Amino acid sequence: MIKNWFKNIGPGPLIAAAFIGPGTVTVCTLAGVGFGFSLLWAMVLSIFATIILQEMSARLGIITQKGLSEIIRTEIKHPVFKFLAILLILSAIVIGNAAYEAGNITGGVLGLETIVGNPSLNIGGFSINVLSIVIGAIAFVLLYLGNYKVLECALITLVILMSLAFLITAIITKPNILEILKGAFIPKFPEDSLLTIIALIGTTVVPYNLFLHAALVKEKWKTKSDLQFARKDTIIAVILGGVVSMCVIISASSIQNVEINNTADLAKGLEPLFGSFAKYFLAIGLFAAGITSAITAPLAAAYVTSGCLGWSSNMKAKKFRAIWIFILILGVVFSSLGIKSIEIIKFAQVANGVLLPVIAGFLIWIMNKESVLGDYKNTIKHNFFGFLILGISILLSLATLNKVFNLNLF
User: Comparing C-alpha atoms, which of 303, 299, 348, 347 is closest to residue 327?
Assistant: First the structure.
């Protein structure tokens, strides 16, 4: 039974690994510190929206045996619209993931630093963080092997490690179960919470995961009958990922009167209350979150670029490797030198904020095309929830633009 279950685990945990990066962990930490359990409902909404969109993406990948970016290239016939769509996607995913990669590696470094300290090298007046290079090297080896099964096993192991770490930390804090249930199922909007709610949803419903999922399912499954396994895999993994994020919020809710800016601070804040065990569990969780996202972000960028430009998406193809190596090197350099690429990250935020409703809209459109999916096109139920999520993503997009450019829309 257990052996059979493990055999049918697919890209789901990789998708969970991709959305639970250090950015998500930090946002959840700040949500817990600032608002207690009252924003847990935003995570429940995010889990639901992610399951709906990722199921569509997985179905598209299995039925067509193509990635989402490949289908965008072939299905948009108008040359101007096709050019604009590809330009937006490449800008948001490739440049965006390069910007986020530094944050992913830095997050993993923060986790390790809590345990081993801060080893650094001084070369030519620059102080280089050794741990950034170590995490970059691990990600490089796993990606360079170009073996989907090895990558899948490594990421599943790290996701399980991360899940246990954050779950145990939440249990250590002995939270009130009734208050957790209230927070999860009764929406509240505390004062000054809007941006945090947007951030919680925005870090879970990730545009690049829609591309990554469609590309990865065809590595695992080849026939229409495998769709049942893909659905189970998606639902279980996304719920698990959401529970991990909720555990971070729950853990952070127990901290009082401590200045918290990121998860490393949360680890220090928990230590006086719950002992060094809490610190170590959190550090392991943050390390796993950082390294899994440091692997999936360059991988997604490589799949998206290859699909948009018509290149081979074989993991051992030279052009495919060149893309993820470029993204990974940028991340390692920015992280090891401590460069904060604020403007690039701001651009990535805007591009991804605009991209989510565009991709969600395109996904719903393509999922209704009988010429592409035949009998596996969207049902009325799929479309109802899909358009509901599309509406939310448009609001998120406007809120992101409002936040970055101070447009005073809200």
Answer: 299
Q: Residue 1 has what pLDDT?
A: 47
Q: Any bridge partners for residue 226, and if so which? A: none
b/e per residue, 167-183, with b = 16+ CB within 10 A?
A: bbbbebbebeeeebeeb
> What are the C-alpha distances in Å from 177 to residues 3, 30, 171, 309, 324?
33, 20, 11, 50, 43
Residue 243: CB atoms within 10 A of its CB come to 17
Task: Tell me the Ramachandran region of residue 406: left when phi exceeds 0, alpha when psi lies from -120 to 50, beta otherwise.
Answer: left
Work out whether the CA dihedral 12, 14, 16, 19 comes out positive or negative.
Answer: negative
Q: What pLDDT, in 10s, does the model give residues 343-400?
A: 555 556 566 667 788 888 889 999 998 888 888 899 999 999 999 999 988 887 787 7
Residue 341 has pLDDT above 80, yes or no: no
**Burial letters 368-406, b for 16+ CB under 10 A, else e:** eeeebbeebbbeeebeebbeebbebbeebbbbbbbbeee
What does the pLDDT read at residue 381? 92
**Residue-wise pLDDT tens digits, 326-339:** 999 988 887 777 66
Angle value at C-alpha 153, between 242 and 158, nearest 5 degrees: 45
Helix (H) or strand (E) holding 126: strand 126-129
Indicate the SS3 state at residue 273: helix
Which class for 248: exposed (0-12), middle (13-18), buried (19 or more C-beta within 10 A)?
A: buried
> Which residues are bridge partners to 122 per DSSP?
127
pLDDT of residue 355: 76
Radius of gyration of the chain (CA): 20
Nearest to 306 by CA among 318, 295, 296, 294: 318
Q: In sequence order, what are the beta bridge partners of 121?
A: 128
Largest pairwise CA distance in the chain: 63
Per-residue DSSP letter, 312: -
Cβ pair 266, 31 in contact under 8 A: no
pLDDT digits (tens, 9 = 90+) for 210-263: 888 988 888 788 888 888 888 999 999 899 889 989 988 998 887 765 666 655
Q: How does 194-221 read in b/e, with b if 16+ C-beta sit within 10 Å?
A: eebbbbbbbbbbbbbbbbbbbbbbbbbb
